[in-house]
Write a structure and sequence with these properties.
Number of helices: 9
Radius of gyration: 18 Å
Structural class: alpha/beta
CATH topology: Rossmann fold
Order of helices and strands: HHHHEHEHEEHEHHEE
Number of strands: 7
CATH superfamily: Vaccinia Virus protein VP39
Strand content: 15-25%
CATH architecture: 3-Layer(aba) Sandwich
Number of domains: 1
Strand order of the largest sheet: 3-2-1-4-5-7-6
Shape: globular
């Protein structure tokens, strides 16, 4: 019988090796980049305050943006905090090309982007100081597994900032636009759903509390759910608070 560790490694390799349909985020990368950079809310100030309430990260701290797309927050945080090391992770090659191009245009040497699976991050356990996940759970189904992976890579005392849209209509706009365009110019099978899936207040709270955070601060406005979560010194047996 395989050990739990061996099963986990097997599942990670299986996910990486599986052949999947093309992604709308690759086919129409320019359209999603436009939505991210011009239509969605900019939470850079809230992220900075939530992750570093003292005002700034320590020199050489590592921040990872999950599902970074064109690298919106990765680039803004790299500009704001020159001593911060920033890594954007996404599975879309074309989104990553856009992110790298924009970072290069700004001369950002403390910001890089890599292709990766949010269910199987390359970062070792307990090595990431801060993490950002914005609008990620609208398009992934294994939400608790993604959050567990984020919890794994955070160092004890590290924090993550999570922002999720509350309106299914607003969240679906970029997906709907890409599906409509696909129907016109590139009909076919794509791996994204036709509609974004959003969480209710209770569902969002349940998701956040699925991990043994030391603290978890949750709040909401008319458009977004937010959470700032801090990893406990020991990841075993400490309930979240909200």
């Amino acid at each position: 019988m395989l050990s739990p560790t061996a099963v986990g490694l097997w599942n990670r390799h299986a996910r990486r090796d599986r052949v999947e349909p093309e992604s709308l985020f690759d086919r129409f990368s320019w359209l999603y980049a436009f939505c991210r950079e011009h239509l969605f809310r900019d939470d850079t100030d809230q992220i900075s305050t939530g992750l570093w309430p003292a005002g700034a990260p320590k020199a050489e701290s590592l921040l990872v943006e999950l599902g970074c797309g064109p690298g919106f927050y990765a680039r803004r945080l790299a500009v704001r905090f020159a001593r911060l090391r920033v890594v954007g992770v996404d599975r879309s090659d074309r989104q990553l090309l856009r992110a790298r191009s924009r970072a290069a245009a700004r001369g950002l040497r403390n910001c890089r982007f890599e292709r990766g699976d949010v269910l199987a991050l390359r970062q070792p356990t307990d090595t990431v100081d801060a993490l950002v996940a914005s609008r990620l759970f609208t398009v992934v189904s294994a939400r608790q597994d993604v959050l567990a992976e984020a919890h794994r890579v955070l160092r004890p005392g590290g924090r993550c900032f999570i922002a999720e849209p509350r309106s299914a209509l607003r969240a679906t706009v970029p997906l709907l636009a890409m599906w409509l365009l696909a129907g016109l110019v590139a009909p076919g099978s794509y791996r994204e759903p036709s509609r974004a899936s959003v969480l209710g207040i209770g569902q969002f709270g349940h998701l956040i509390q699925s991990q043994p955070w030391r603290y978890a601060w949750l709040w909401h406005d008319n458009r977004y759910h937010y959470a700032v979560c801090e990893k406990a010194p020991s990841s075993v047996g400490l309930p979240a608070s909200g």
